[in-house]
Amino acid sequence: MTDFFSEFGLDRRAWIDLDVLKSKYHALMAESHPDKTNGSEARSTLLNEGRKTLTSHPHRLRHLAALLGGGTESPTKVSPDWDLFSRTGDLTRRVSLAIEKKASLTSPIAKAVCQAEHKQLESDLVKLREEISAHLDQLEIRTRQADQSPHDSSSLLILAEEWTFATRWSQSINTAITAIRN
Hints:
- The chain has helices spanning 4-7, 18-32, 41-55, 57-67, 82-104, 108-146, 153-181.
- By secondary structure, it is mainly alpha-helical.
């Protein structure tokens, strides 16, 4: 297994400075790009894969856990924050139904009445997005704290799963906000 931390000259850490990674990536790509003399397509591909892995919280945490000998999947199933999980699913379904309903309406008066429902849904989405954002902030704090003690592959994998859930919720809510505003 390739150690992407080593490839970029970084310490194996749960939290990394993405600006430092970006700068190291650009410097290494300047030397390795296939269009350069002595460049290498294989090396460029490896650097691209490494940047992608280390930039993503869940991918970086899984990679670090694998390097520590813990594999890439959590040994125990991680339960998401069920409240946020269910409210995200419920609200995004309600938004989809409201959009379908509005699309089927032909009367301007009916569409105007439907607009009030859309505004309320948008307000609910924005509030939930703020809660999910706060949840992501807590995950960031926990990820930074993971560097304060020796890395445990199991806890890194659990944290990676939590990042995966929260990131998906955030993306779903942002997609729903965009859809309801159109």
